[in-house]
Amino acid sequence: MTIYLAGGCFWGLQKYFDQFPGVRATEVGYANGPDSAPTYREVCDSSGHAETVKIEYDPNKISLRELLDKYFLVIDPLSVNKQGNDRGIQYRTGIYYADQSQLPEIQAVYDEQEAKYGTKLAVELAPIQNFYSAEEYHQKYLDKNPQTATATFRRRCSILRKRRAGRRSAKRLVTSPMRSRRTPRPSAPSPVRTMTSLRRESMSIS
User: Fold this and answer.
1) What predicted TM-score, i.e. pTM, was given to this entire model?
2) pLDDT tens across 57-103, in order?
3) Residue 54 CB contacts under 8 Å (≥ 6 apart), including other chains
4) Which single residue of 11, 37, 56, 137 could bond 132 by disulfide (Cβ 3.0 to 4.6 Å)?
């Protein structure tokens, strides 16, 4: 079986899903945009495609629900065209299915997530219209460039921590509406280059 997942930078998402037993193969590419194969530069110039990971999996070893539960752990499903420091239509989130029989299971997970957040998700849910394989240097990028992996997973973990902290803060505000808000301290410049800057560097040498 195959499912296509868009969740921001496809480097980290591919590395993330490669670790799970039952995932047979992954491939990064550009999905659900105009019907012509784009280059990475064109995608960065808002071609309309989403950076997407094609996941081939064995349903006897890992279910679609399990894959989707893991997917929702590492994305911000309320963010529009943005994940972490990566911004642009190519970084939108989406679940794209190849088989109509997958839809009931996908819809069940999707509805559960909407109920949990109490608002409409920004995650696209649609059939896969097209998928164009990304350039070879993007395939298994973090295996080829392990020094980048630390920054990528740090970003993914940061998304999860902020989302959980936000939910806790919202609960505190509901129970204590008169509690004053703290002024956030300015963040110090990160010593780790952002994924956007790293990707621009990769473009310049491609």
Assistant:
1) 0.77
2) 999 999 999 999 999 999 999 999 999 889 999 999 999 999 999 99
3) 2, 4, 26, 27, 28, 29, 131
4) 37
Give dist(CA 11, CA 23) in Å, integer.
16
Tokens of 120: 């409409």
Nearest Cα to 33, choosing from 74, 92, 97?
Answer: 92
> Tell me: the pLDDT tens digits for 121-133?
999 999 999 999 9
Rounded to whole angstroms, the Cα distance separating 98 from 96 reads 7
Measured distance CA(116)–CA(97) in Å, rounded: 23
User: CA dihedral defined by 22, 28, 30, 32, rounded to 10 degrees?
Assistant: 0
Contact 118, 167 (CB under 8 A): no
- Active-site residues, by number, are 9
